[in-house]
Specification:
Layout (H helix, E strand, L loop, with lengths): L2 H7 L11 E4 L4 H10 L10 E6 L5 H13 L3 E5 L5 H11 L2
Parallel strand pairs: 1-2, 2-3
């Protein structure tokens, strides 16, 4: 039985969507994009949104490389666990308010 079927049978009003968090490193971004393109990695709900987790010691330049590469390939990155990436949080906030 699929999870959605079990939820429906239990009369719980919720829809289940496929997706995963992808741990991203700048040096592997081409492989990650390839995995997204061929379906090895799932986007959120079969959309173009990607839940991207960065290593806690990721430098701001690496974070920007990852975001830029995903965006250039038609994906919309969502950074998971920004609270863990204190070293890039202020940079991302500054970019968002520009």
């Amino acid at each position: 039985m699929r999870l959605q079927d079990a939820v429906s049978e239990a009369e719980i009003n919720v829809r289940i969507h496929k997706g995963c968090e992808i741990l991203c490193a700048g040096e592997y971004i081409d492989d990650i994009i390839y995995g997204l393109d061929i379906g090895t990695f799932s986007t959120l709900g079969n959309s173009n949104h990607v839940l991207a987790e960065l290593y806690q010691d990721a430098k701001p330049s690496e974070a920007l490389t990852i975001v830029k590469a995903l965006t250039e390939h038609g994906y919309k990155p969502i950074i998971a666990h920004m609270e863990r990436n204190y070293n890039i949080t202020s940079l991302m906030v500054r970019l968002l308010i520009q």
